[in-house]
Amino acid sequence: MRALPQPQPEDLDLATVLHALGDPVRLELLRRLAADSETTCSPEGLTVPRSTLSNHWRILREAGVTSTRISGKTRLVTLRRDELDARFPRLLDAVLDEFTRPAANGPAPA
Amino acid sequence: MRALPQPQPEDLDLATVLHALGDPVRLELLRRLAADSETTCSPEGLTVPRSTLSNHWRILREAGVTSTRISGKTRLVTLRRDELDARFPRLLDAVLDEFTRPAANGPAPA
Q: Between B75 and which of A110, B41, B66, B84 could a Cys-Cys bridge form, CB atoms 3.0 to 4.6 Å apart?
């Protein structure tokens, strides 16, 4: 089992993290990661080309939002929740609120 | 006095807002807007080309983060704080925390 490179907690940068989250597909990946402890790189029910998805995962990992471990042929992704919460208190909560709020104009749950 | 076009509060989109904030220059503009009630489009002390700055302001306005009023030859920008707070509770607070926290590795105040 090896892990792909990722920034150290002290190198997390707010603009980079916000940019990584500022995309509807990556927000959906975040929502799924927050609900499940770990996910594969090809989650079900996402109609996104594999290469596009791979790019989204890379952006999230390089921003420090996720960790990726490689186990055989499988890539397992986790949310770096504790590190993000320590570095940017309340930020993830505020973003994830979008998916739990009964908003009239929020995105429908997937 | 006229205003440039901007999205209605009900059309504010989380991914679009996060993308607009996911840039170091735009984060600095946000910090200044949060500190001052209104700013011109050419704030002092920013070493950013005028055309680049203009593009940043456009991205912020089109995402619904700011309002721009035109008064003669002057463009005055305000933060749409109340509308953003209503639509995305705690989000701006979490982002602006970065500039008030005595973080060892946070950005230096401008």
A: B41
Task: Determine the pLDDT at residue B103.
Answer: 54
Cβ–Cβ gap B21/A16 under 8 Å = no
CA distance B57 to B37: 16
Question: Are A94 and B91 an interchain contact pair (Cβ–Cβ within 8 Å)?
Answer: yes
Q: Which of A109, A4, A95 is nearest to A54 (CA)?
A: A4
Chain B nearest-CA distance from A4, in A, is: 24
Q: Assign B45 a pLDDT band (cuts: 50, 70, 90).
A: confident
Query: What pLDDT was estimated at residue A107?
Result: 53
Contact between residue A90 and residue A51 where contact means Cβ atoms under 8 Å apart: no
Chain B nearest CA to A37, separation (Å): 23
Residue among A14, A27, A93 minimizing CB distance to B27: A14
DSSP string, A21-66: H-SHHHHHHHHHHHHSS-EESS-TT--S-HHHHHHHHHHHHHHTSE
The yes-or-no verdict on residue B47 having pLDDT over 90 is no
Length of chain B: 110
Q: How many CA atoms lie within 13 A of A7 on its CB side?
A: 20
Predicted structure pTM score: 0.90
Size of interface A-B (CB pairs under 8 A): 78
Q: Terminus-to-terminus CA distance in chain A, angstroms?
A: 31
Q: Do A97 and B105 touch (CB under 8 A)?
A: no
